[in-house]
Design a protein that fits this description.
The complex is a heterodimer of chains A (345) and B (241). Chain A is mostly helical and 345 residues long. Helices cover 69% and strands 3% of the residues of chain A. In chain A, the strands form 2 sheets. Chain A has a two-stranded antiparallel ribbon with strand order 1-2. In chain A, strands 3-4 form a two-stranded antiparallel sheet. In chain A, strand 3 and strand 4 form a beta hairpin. Classes of the chains: A mainly alpha (345), B alpha/beta (241). Chains A and B meet through helix 7 and helix 8 of A and helix 2 and helix 3 of B.
């Protein structure tokens, strides 16, 4: 069964009233929340929202279109670096934000075109995406020299680019978003992207994507050009990863080559697997759990043991819930409901 | 029944390494025909079907469908031109409900309203209404075949290819399938690959026998049944030796 918690993740069907209510409730809660939190908490929770967008970009592609891209961090990093370079050159942030995302999507279009229209197999696509993000990391790391300048911004190699500007409010450019502002912005964008993807999956386009995941050959026999759909999904997902990257740069006021790195790329997969790739809520929850675990364990002085502990958590989740936490829990609830109903008749 | 050829292959060949899976097939199918392909395992029937639908590219030769050369056309282009196929192994969307399977098939090239209409008609006709919301992967083999046949018909194809449509079906289901094929044949040209002679007896007018990648003989069903060459091929060498 690939259907997630009823109303929360099933593809094809239009979301019901309950779903809209839950979304509205979540949105209200997120808007009220910052007034109850201190600055440090706001800061730590914002990054969960931002990284959850990266997780969503992967789970949309993997869980719904069946394409495992190991290198969503390529677009994450491009978004971050694109924004940093543009904003520092132009001294404004709204255009830079959109331009950075478009830039990453353009790259996704070109890179994706060659992979998908070249009909390389799924496993090679995973490898290629991983390789491309590692190439970016290496390339950026080797730009320490003074000659590596874009406009008036030095790329700084492995030291990264500091002083990335905060987002200026478009209609009031003298004012910059503070920590609470970034919280609101990333929370709102996360909800927006989640709702957008959920609705996208109910459109004919989204339904064909799910068909491609289920059986690409059949989709083609039916007369659909699966490559067009896959490429479109790849570009959309690249855009979401880039948005995550821009917000990350803004949150941190800093970008560094590690945004492209293997560690981050692997983390995304862990979030998605822990939460469950066949739902859209799952990866958000997965990101939250893993990030909170990391933050808390990090302050408990487990230090170098952290990756090991996360690895054990991943293994336990995979063993206990084959499809991830949320689908597992959803399946459990459905099973209980059947038992209760079965017992009553 | 007969008219202009809707499908023609000329010198069609497929080599896999040194193996000639299809070794020069000249095949002609008139519009409105219901043709059966038979032959022992490995005779090249499924390979032939896969070449007709772009799933395998021929090594040599030509395929012309309704006046268009489709020898090197992509699978989805052939699908759009109007060839529908039920593959030997059910090729369905296992994780999706029956209704969604048919919807995806009917949707391509049709507006939403027309799609809904086609899906509703097919569910009625194939008696799938009761299982509309069940995942196809949970269904019995015979039911999955019906879903797949439904997906083929939803495209309103000019030519239907059915690779072992009665495999895994009960006797009653087989009879229903034979009746369905005869009914579909009133408006559509059909080729059926089958092993079940009882089933072929119910539907066939003309039979083509494949053997070692070539056409052995092509004739009416009754004459095929009494053809000594066909008998040899099916019963094995000892009868011929």
């Amino acid at each position: 069964m690939r259907i997630g918690i009823p109303g929360l993740g099933a593809a094809g069907e239009r979301p019901g009233l309950l779903w809209w209510l839950l979304v509205a409730l979540a949105l209200i809660a997120l808007m009220i929340l910052p007034s109850r939190l201190n600055i440090a908490q706001q800061f730590n929770i914002s990054i969960i929202f931002i990284l959850a967008l990266l997780a969503l970009s992967m789970s949309f592609l993997w869980g719904y279109a069946g394409i495992l891209s190991f290198g969503q961090t390529a677009f994450f990093g491009l978004g971050g670096y694109g924004f940093a370079v543009l904003a520092l050159n132009l001294g404004e942030t709204t255009f830079s934000l959109f331009a950075a995302i478009l830039l990453a999507m353009l790259f996704a279009a070109i890179f994706g075109y060659f992979m998908i229209y070249g009909r390389i197999s799924d496993i090679y696509l995973s490898v290629m995406t991983l390789v491309i993000t590692l190439i970016f990391e290496k390339a950026i790391k080797s730009t320490s020299g003074e000659q590596y300048v874009i406009g008036k911004v030095r790329l700084n190699g492995q030291n990264g680019i500091p002083t990335v500007p905060s987002i200026k409010i478009p209609w009031h450019t003298a004012k910059e978003l503070g920590i609470d502002g970034v919280f609101y912005l990333s929370a709102a964008l996360l909800v927006l992207v989640y709702v957008g993807l959920r609705l996208l999956l109910t459109t004919p386009f989204g339904r064909v994507l799910v068909g491609i995941r289920e059986n690409t050959r059949r989709i083609e026999l039916l007369g659909y050009d699966s490559r067009r759909y896959k490429l479109a999904a790849f570009i959309i997902s690249g855009g979401i990863a880039a948005l995550s990257g821009v917000l990350f740069a803004v949150w941190n006021n800093f970008v560094a080559p590690e945004m492209f790195g293997l560690k981050r790329a692997a983390e995304v997969i862990v979030w998605v697997i822990v939460g469950g790739k066949s739902t859209l809520v799952g990866p958000i929850v997965g990101t939250a759990i893993v990030q909170m675990l990391k933050t808390n364990l990090g302050s408990q002085a487990v230090g170098e043991w952290l990756p090991l502990i996360l690895g054990v958590v991943l293994m336990l989740v995979v063993l206990a819930f084959r499809d991830g936490l949320l689908p597992g829990i959803g399946g459990g609830i459905a099973w209980l409901c059947r038992r209760v109903r079965g017992g009553a008749t | 029944m007969s008219g202009a050829p809707v499908l023609q292959t000329v010198g069609l060949e497929k080599r896999f390494g040194g193996v000639h899976a299809i070794a020069g097939v000249d095949f002609t199918l008139a519009e409105g025909e219901l043709r059966c392909l038979i032959g022992p395992n490995g005779a090249g029937k499924s390979t032939f079907f896969k070449m007709l639908t772009g799933q395998i590219t021929p090594t040599a030769g030509r395929i012309v469908f309704a006046g268009t050369d489709i020898t090197h056309a992509a699978t989805h282009e052939i699908g759009r031109l109007g060839i529908g196929i039920k593959n030997q192994v059910p090729d369905v969307f296992d994780g999706l409900p029956v209704r969604e399977n048919l919807w995806l098939a009917a949707r391509r090239g049709n507006a939403i309203a027309a799609t809904r209409q086609i899906v509703a008609e097919l569910m009625e006709r194939l008696q799938l209404t009761d299982i509309a919301h069940r995942s196809v992967g949970e269904l019995a083999h015979g039911q999955r075949q019906w879903v797949e046949i439904g997906m083929v018909l939803a495209r309103r194809p000019k030519l239907v290819l059915l690779d072992e449509p009665s495999a895994g079906m009960s006797l009653e289901e087989t009879n229903r399938t034979a009746a369905l094929i005869r009914e579909v044949n009133k408006t559509t040209t059909i080729i059926v690959v089958e092993h079940d002679m009882q089933f072929i007896r119910q539907i066939a007018t003309k039979v083509t026998v494949f053997h070692q990648g070539q056409i052995l003989v092509e004739d009416a069903f009754e004459r095929i049944m009494t053809n000594p060459a066909v008998r040899d091929v099916y019963l094995g060498r000892q009868a011929a030796a």
